[in-house]
Amino acid sequence: MATVIFFFLVSCTAGQNSTELELGEEFVVDKSLGFTNGKPNPGSYIVGISHLNIIVGDIDYATEFYERTLGFVQAHNVRGVMYYKGYTSDSFARDAGFLDGNVKVDIRFLKHPTIGMHIELMKYHEPIGSQEIIYRNTNDLGGIRHVALEVSDAEKAFDYLKQQPDVRMIN
C-alpha cells in the first residue's frame, strides 16, 4: 500500500516554470524544486508556511470563529477580498483529485495580522464529501494532530480560549 501526500508548493512571486493559480497573485503554484550544483536541495526553497486548508460545513460560521478566537481577518490581494463563492475550475478540480473536473466550492482566505499566516476555508458544494467529523486519538496514524501557535502569554491565551463557546479542549 502506498501513501500519496498531496499539497501545493506556494511562492510569493512567480518564477520560472511556475503557473499562477487563479485565486490571486499572492498564491502561486510553483512546480520547480531547489537545486544546488545540479543536486536536489529541497530545504533551499522552503521559506515559510503559506496557509492551512480547512474544510468546513459553514464558511461564514467558520470565518466568525477564527476571527473571534484567534484574531484572523479577511485576507486581501491586489484583486480585493480573497473570497471566491461558487468557484469552479477544471484544473483546480483535477489538482484536488477530482479527475472528472467537476467541483464547486466556496473559498475564503483569512490572514493573521501579526504572523501573516493564512487559513484557507473551503465549503464544498460539489462534490459533497463525508459530513462526519471523526475525532482521532493523539497516537493514531495519519493526519496532523495539532498546530502549535506561539503566543505572548500562554496562560491568558488558554484562559481566553476556554471561555469560547465553540472551543473543544482535550483537558
TrEMBL record:
Pfam families: Glyoxalase (PF00903). PROSITE patterns: VOC. Residues 48-171 form the VOC domain. GO terms for biological process: L-methylmalonyl-CoA metabolic process. Keywords: Metal-binding. One of its GO terms (molecular function) is methylmalonyl-CoA epimerase activity. This is VOC domain-containing protein. It comes from marine metagenome.
